[in-house]
Give the backbone structure.
Amino acid sequence: MKLGRLADGPTTFWALVDDDETWVRPIRGGIGEWARPLSTTWDTGVLDFGIPRPLDSLTILAPAEETSKVVCLGATYARHVAGLGITPTPHPAGFWKPFDALIGAYDDIEYPAISEALDFEVEFVFVMAGPVDRTAPAGSVLGYTVGNDTSLRDLQFGGSVTGMDMFSAKSQVRATPLGPWIVTADEFGPGLPDLSLTLTVNGERRQSARTSDMSFSLDTLVTWADERTPLRAGDVVFTGTPDGVGHEDGRYLAPGDLVEISIEHLGAQRNRVGARPPAVTR
């Protein structure tokens, strides 16, 4: 099943999206109220529905609530790690994004004033159903969605005293597309789904890989993140990007570029890069 976060003017709500993506059934309550019961039974009878609505009358938002943590894991694809010139490690890297960084799957990406090297990163993302059961970590996942973990590479590698400034690189407001939907985990087999990922810029394919190219299992990713911050219902976890990013050949995003992402069975994004604002002093 597909779950979406939608808006009708100032009113936001979760909904069950039909297979044709034409109608939605609003779900009463926040994700923390129904995610765990749904993931336990995969029976929509546990949901309290409102009156069906046509999707084209609504705005599609990033499938996350403002209280959700946005956890990002990196260094999960060996070829991408090599392309960035980073030494591989036996575990993922990790960092945060603020909720303010997220936008919907069809919104414009805001080009930040503090950077001249805005990069793209297609990512498989999982969303939690509730607290992690350490005996079966992947069983605590509600479902999967599509992400573009954009980065400001000139700031990421810009001479931080720690060697890498992830706060400056990853916190840009309204620049991280997420969605359009959460596709529930019962649609897939156990463990990490083997799905194709593709990203194009202005129609040119720049990234192409499979989630099975990742260096870590889903259980490992869930556990590693949860050991560092307790994961709760609605928390969003990005899982890293494959090779082909702009930093590898210096071809970063420019104003007006069209970034299109597709992950098999999960959906697609289409985001235009906005105008670059006047530069600011860093």
Summary: The chain has one domain: 62-272. The chain has a mean pLDDT of 94. Helices lie at 31-41, 78-83, 153-156, 166-170, 218-228.
